[in-house]
């Protein structure tokens, strides 16, 4: 098998901190299982991950969240490879907006990669983020060529999302269509109001509402991937109520699973200090999912140890 060096992006260091190397290796192991990882080393000023893999794996390797580029390692030296990951839309659609509570963009990409690796639906094409904030996951899904639906209880989120979309579509002369409506009877609280962004052959929809009401808000349409970043404690709950992320998940888990196609995957990023991993897993107990362990936990700060729970719904 050819010998490659995957250049670790400085963005991965900013996302995964001291565990950047371990996280990069765990992501490759989960998403490109045919690769043989040899370990991390330095090349010039670059941090690289050395591995062997069949040539057909190159497109998947180029999409790893930690990858900045790839080298072909040969007898005569290291040749840079054309490793364009081939994403739709300008990166500004994901990275452009900065706001309090935004999920790290690199982490969000890894969550989608892990979901795609575990999902056994043929050609997964529909992603749902049931706590979507201002849409980082939705925009990543469009870049991956998937349609996306987000539910967010902060009724201000769609207007903020729209503001960003207007800016980036104008700057990058991106053809698109914005439209809005209601998935249920109009009401003063805005529950059930949606904003659609049609672009690059896909649609991303943001619906105002509570994650615990998914089947009511989204009907019977199933999703192949559910990817979300839970609030990191009470201060990030984004609303008046002070339920912990665990209480929210206990109320919402059944509805999430009901929205998932057989073969689909759920990927959740969370602060492992609240809730503990076992508690979060227990919220899904009895719902017919299988846990897929992926060792990508990393310390973000003294109070936040970010971990990822990956679940598969057998077909
Ligand atoms: C960590 S943030 C997600 C940020 C998002 N990934 C982004 O980058 O914009 C968690 C989000 O969950 C939302 N949230 C919390 N509880 C919710 C619930 N019960 N239903 C819907 N959204 C909820 C919060 O308002 C917050 O926007």
Characterise this structure:
The chain is of the alpha+beta class and 315 residues long. The protein folds into 2 domains: 3-80, Alpha-Beta Plaits, CATH 3.30.70; 92-312, Rossmann fold (3-Layer(aba) Sandwich), CATH 3.40.50.150. It is 29% helix and 30% strand. It is built from 10 helices and 15 strands. The protein has helices spanning 10-16, 20-31, 58-62, 92-95, 105-118, 136-143, 157-171, 214-218, 245-258, 277-283, and strands at 3-8, 36-43, 46-52, 67-74, 77-80, 126-129, 147-152, 177-182, 193-199, 202-208, 223-229, 260-271, 290-291, 298-299, 305-312. The strands form 2 sheets. Strands 6, 7, 8, 9, 10, 11, 12, 13, 14 and 15 form a 10-stranded mixed sheet that branches. A 5-stranded antiparallel sheet has the order 2-3-1-4-5. A hairpin with a 2-residue loop joins β9 and β10. α1 (10-16) crosses α2 (20-31). The longest helix is centred in the middle third of the chain and has 15 residues, at 157-171. The protein is globular. The structure holds S-adenosylmethionine (SAM). Residues 101-103, 131-137, 151-154, 210-212, 229, 231, 236-239, 248 line the site of S-adenosylmethionine.
Distance between the termini: 33 Å
Helix/strand/pairing category: alpha+beta
Q: Number of domains in the coordinates?
A: 2
Strand percent estimate: 25-35%
Total number of strands: 15
User: Which small compounds were modeled alongside the protein?
Assistant: S-adenosylmethionine
CATH level-two architecture of the largest domain: 3-Layer(aba) Sandwich
């Amino acid at each position: 098998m050819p010998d490659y060096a995957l250049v670790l992006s400085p963005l991965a260091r900013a996302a995964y901190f001291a565990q950047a190397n371990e996280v990069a290796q765990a992501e490759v192991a989960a998403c490109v299982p045919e690769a043989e990882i040899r370990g991390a080393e330095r090349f010039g000023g670059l941090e690289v991950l050395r591995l062997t893999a069949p040539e057909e794996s190159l497109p998947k390797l180029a999409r790893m969240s930690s990858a900045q580029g790839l080298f072909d390692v040969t007898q005569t030296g290291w040749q840079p490879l054309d490793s364009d990951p081939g994403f739709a839309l300008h990166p500004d659609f994901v990275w452009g907006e900065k706001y309090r509570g935004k999920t790290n963009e690199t982490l969000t990409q890894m969550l989608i990669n892990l979901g795609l690796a575990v999902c056994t639906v043929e050609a997964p094409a529909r992603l749902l983020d049931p706590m979507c904030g201002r849409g980082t996951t939705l925009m990543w899904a469009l870049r991956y060529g998937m349609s996306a639906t987000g539910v967010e209880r902060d009724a201000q989120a769609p207007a903020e999302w729209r503001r960003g979309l207007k800016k980036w579509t104008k700057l990058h002369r991106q053809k698109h269509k914005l439209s809005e409506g209601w998935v249920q009877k109009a009401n003063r609280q805005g529950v059930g109001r949606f904003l659609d962004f049609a672009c690059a052959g896909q649609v991303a929809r943001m619906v105002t509402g509570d994650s615990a009401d998914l089947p009511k808000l989204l009907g019977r349409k199933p999703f192949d991937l559910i990817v979300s970043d839970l609030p990191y404690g009470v201060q990030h709950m984004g609303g008046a109520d002070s339920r912990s992320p665990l209480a929210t998940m206990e109320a919402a888990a059944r509805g999430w699973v009901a929205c998932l196609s057989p073969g689909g995957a759920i990927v959740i990023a969370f602060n492992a200090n609240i809730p503990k991993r076992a508690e979060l897993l227990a919220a899904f107990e009895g719902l017919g999912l299988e846990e897929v362990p992926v060792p990508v936990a990393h310390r973000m700060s003294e109070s936040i140890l970010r971990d990822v729970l990956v679940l598969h719904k057998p077909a």
